[in-house]
Structures are given as structure tokens and as C-alpha cells.
Specification:
Number of helices: 5
Order of helices and strands: HHHEEHH
CATH architecture: Orthogonal Bundle
CATH superfamily: Cytochrome c-like domain
Number of strands: 2
């Protein structure tokens, strides 16, 4: 019985020791290193590299499908700061693929079905980023922009 109480207390202290910074770090890892969100949602700098000063501030989409896709977007929206989404809406988006407007995500954006905790972590990370100040993307991505 005493061992069960000790294990429960240890688990509680571990859970409470994971402040938002741990969740944000996990979200950064998932968004930047696993899902590669910056590949589409970050504009390029003059050297053709992702512009770290405008990380996840939205960008033009630098590729097209081989076959026509209805409503193919010309740009990937800013996601830094979660513009247009509440935290709950963005978690729902990452776990179901359903946007804040109640529509299914469309290509090239994957309709993710993430685990809840991963979606919470990514949402915390994106919310921690400064939002974009601009909404227009002056620099196309890919070979056309060089």
C-alpha cells in the first residue's frame, strides 16, 4: 500500500514538473523535425533558405500537383501564434483534420490524425511563437523565386 502511494506521488510530481516549456519543446520537435511545417509555412530568404525571422509566418506554395487538384492553394497560411484558431480548434484540426471552419483539410496539407498529447504540444509551441505581422508573401518559393 505504501509503495502505491509513493509511486502515485512520484508520478504526480513528475507531471507537475513538466511545465509548459517541456510541452513547447516537444511541440517544436514535432512541428519542426517530424512534420516539417516550416517547409510550406515559412517564406524563403534571399539565399533561398527558410527565413528564421519569419518562421511559420506563411508562404507561397512552391510546388504544384502533377494532376489538377481542385482548389489547390497558392499559399500556406501563417500558423505562428495560431491566427484564426482557438487552442481547442487547432487541437481538433491536428487530431481530426477538420479546420476551424468545419471543413476537411485539403492538399497539400495533410489531414493529420495525431495523438491528443502530440496535438496539444504542437498547439502550445505554435501559440508561443510571435504571430506574423504581414499577410502577403512577396517572395515565391522554389525555383521560380530564384
Amino acid at each position: 500500500m505504501l509503495l502505491g502511494v509513493i509511486v502515485a506521488l512520484a508520478g504526480a510530481s513528475i507531471a507537475s514538473a513538466d511545465p509548459g516549456s517541456g510541452r513547447i519543446a516537444r511541440g517544436r520537435y514535432l512541428a519542426d523535425e517530424v512534420a516539417f511545417c516550416g517547409d510550406c509555412h515559412t517564406p524563403l530568404d534571399d539565399a533561398g533558405k527558410p527565413d528564421r525571422t519569419r518562421w511559420l509566418h506563411g508562404s507561397t506554395v512552391g510546388f504544384k500537383p502533377l494532376q489538377p487538384v481542385p482548389d489547390w492553394p497558392e499559399s500556406a497560411p501563417a500558423v505562428a501564434g495560431l491566427p484564426g484558431y482557438t487552442e481547442a480548434q487547432f487541437i481538433r484540426f491536428l487530431t481530426t483534420g477538420i479546420t476551424a471552419k468545419g471543413k476537411i483539410s485539403r492538399p497539400p496539407m495533410p489531414a493529420y490524425r495525431l495523438h491528443y498529447e502530440d496535438a496539444v504540444a504542437i498547439t502550445a509551441y505554435l501559440k508561443s511563437l510571435p504571430p506574423a505581422k504581414e499577410t502577403q508573401y512577396e517572395k515565391p518559393r522554389g525555383p521560380a523565386g530564384k
